[in-house]
Amino acid sequence: MPVLPATEEAISQAAQALARGEIVAFPTETVYGLGADARDARAVTKVFAAKDRPRFNPLIVHVPDIAAAETYAPFDDTARKLAEAFWPGPLSLVLPKRPASGIADLVTAGLDTMALRAPNHAIAQALLKQRSCPSLRPPPTGPGGISPTDATHVAAELGDLPAMILDGGPCARGLESTVVRVTGETPALLRLGAVPRQEIEAVLGHPIALADEDAPIASPGQLVRHYAPNTPLRLDATEVEPDEALLAFGPSAPQGALTTINLSAAADLAEAATKLFASLRALDQSGASRIAVMPVPDQGLGEAINDRLRRAAKAR
Ligand code: TXA
Ligand code: MG
């Protein structure tokens, strides 16, 4: 399958492939994803067949803007406030699905709610504007399931499956979107992600609780193995063994690891988020017997980074 620079022509070809029921990989500001026409049950089936994605894991439908999203799900005041604050951007809203939305049941895993997101990425926007029906975008997950943040990751893992891969270079954010459910009385945080919890609370004007991750119906996609490299992880490392790879953070990384990648020598959490998945991937292939991970402050984006690291450590 071809990896194409995302020229105007390649984007048109991708839109045509989606219309034919094929699947296409393309970048967003968070991670790359596999796109299919969310109203085409057969195309969606191909996305599910792509990896060991469990059937009950619902997908996010991607749209260019609020107006497009409203054709699939009604927005209440809270949903509108959040979308106006963060769209286009790395926030997914879980909303009641319109009965006549036309979205394939497989997309929503049979739920009467659906997740919607308008990505802030020129290539994704150009594609979504051409293809009036939404693409859904589960990021293909690699061996052990680290989300792809570069077209080469996608190519390495998906083989012939997508009709094409639009190459947009590395993703600016590197962490998946924050997922907020806006149904029922109070909004709930279903997944930590690229929009920090505090920013959402600032818009809502009140704290937002993280839904219990063991409640499968609340967020069926919160599967631990989503983020797991094959090499075991040792968290909160302050020193390192010679057979370990070191995932460092900040200016004072300990010496002596087999190999070291610093998420951000300047201790910048946004830079660390951008590099997280690619770094885990590289260290996973380093031949080290363990990946030692330095502590990352649990504030702002650090909360989501630590969430991914804990999942990666737990999944083994
Ligand atoms: O940044 C992202 O969100 C990336 C890019 C490609 O947009 N996509 C992504 O998709 O991470 P995925 O499939 O790995 O995660 C979708 C998340 C899961 O946690 C899933 O449970 C949740 O969204 N979700 C989707 N529909 C839902 C629904 N109706 N109710 C509750 N959670 C839902
Ligand atoms: Mg995922």
TrEMBL record:
Catalytically driven reaction(s): L-threonine + hydrogencarbonate + ATP = L-threonylcarbamoyladenylate + diphosphate + H2O
Cellular component terms per the entry's GO annotation: cytoplasm
SUPFAM superfamilies linked to this entry: YrdC/RibB
Pfam families: Sua5_C, Sua5_yciO_yrdC
Residues binding ATP, per UniProt: 53, 57, 113, 147, 191, 227
UniProt entry tagged with the keyword Ubl conjugation: no
Molecular-function annotations in GO: ATP binding; double-stranded RNA binding; L-threonylcarbamoyladenylate synthase; tRNA binding
Location(s) in or outside the cell: Cytoplasm
Keywords carried by this UniProt record: ATP-binding, Cytoplasm, Nucleotide-binding, Nucleotidyltransferase, Transferase, tRNA processing
Key word Nucleotide-binding present: yes
InterPro entries, A to Z: DHBP_synth_RibB-like_a/b_dom (IPR017945), Sua5-like_dom (IPR006070), Sua5/YwlC_C (IPR038385), Sua5_C (IPR005145), T(6)A37_SUA5 (IPR010923), TC-AMP_synthase_SUA5 (IPR050156)
EC code(s) of this entry: 2.7.7.87
Binding-site list for L-threonine: 30, 62, 117, 177
Domain YrdC-like: start-end pairs: 8-195
One of the GO BP terms on file: regulation of translational fidelity
Annotated function: Required for the formation of a threonylcarbamoyl group on adenosine at position 37 (t(6)A37) in tRNAs that read codons beginning with adenine.
Family: Belongs to the SUA5 family.
PANTHER family: SUA5, THREONYLCARBAMOYL-AMP SYNTHASE
Classification via NCBIfam families: L-threonylcarbamoyladenylate synthase (TIGR00057)
Name of protein: Threonylcarbamoyl-AMP synthase
Species this protein is from: Methyloceanibacter marginalis
